[in-house]
Amino acid sequence: MISSKEIKELREKLGATQTEFAKALGISFSTVSRWESGQAQPTDTQEEQLDALKQLLENQDIDERKLKKMLGLMGIGGVIATAIIAGFTISTPWGAAMTSLIKKSTHAGKILDLFKKNKKPNKTQE
């Protein structure tokens, strides 16, 4: 079970306000506030969504600012799709259905590249 502290840390790592975080997750600001204060817990599905987001943020190649922007644009469904593309397992029926669709896509790797940090090419010595 994800703790209130972990939820707050996840939101802060994204650099999102409670309002921004709530909007991206498709929930109310007050729900995020209650989660962070320990007055309420996410549902199993919400917890799985938060876990997918947490796994993405733990990936060293993922740029948090880009992920925050895409989360704002795509919502949690987009984040879950991205987590699936990155190879994370989402075990809910909805996640399993998305996994099946995404694995059939030939563009999945290109989608994940949208979130990766820009890396400077290595200069070779001549």
Automatic annotation (TrEMBL):
| Coiled-coil annotated spans | 43-70
Which InterPro entries does this one have?
Cro/C1-type_HTH (IPR001387), HTH-type_reg/antitoxin (IPR052359), Lambda_DNA-bd_dom_sf (IPR010982)
Gene3D superfamilies registered for this protein in UniProt: lambda repressor-like DNA-binding domains
- Tell me where on the tree of life, at the top rank, the source sits: Bacteria
Say if the entry is tagged with keyword Cell division: no
| Residue stretches making up the HTH cro/C1-type domain | 7-43
User: What are the GO MF terms of this UniProt record?
Assistant: DNA binding
Q: Which residues cross the membrane?
A: 70-90
Q: Which UniProt keywords apply?
A: Coiled coil, DNA-binding, Membrane, Transcription, Transcription regulation, Transmembrane, Transmembrane helix
State the PROSITE patterns in the record: HTH_CROC1 (PS50943)
Which PANTHER family would you find in this protein's record? ANTITOXIN HIGA-2, MERR FAMILY BACTERIAL REGULATORY PROTEIN
Q: What is this protein called?
A: HTH cro/C1-type domain-containing protein
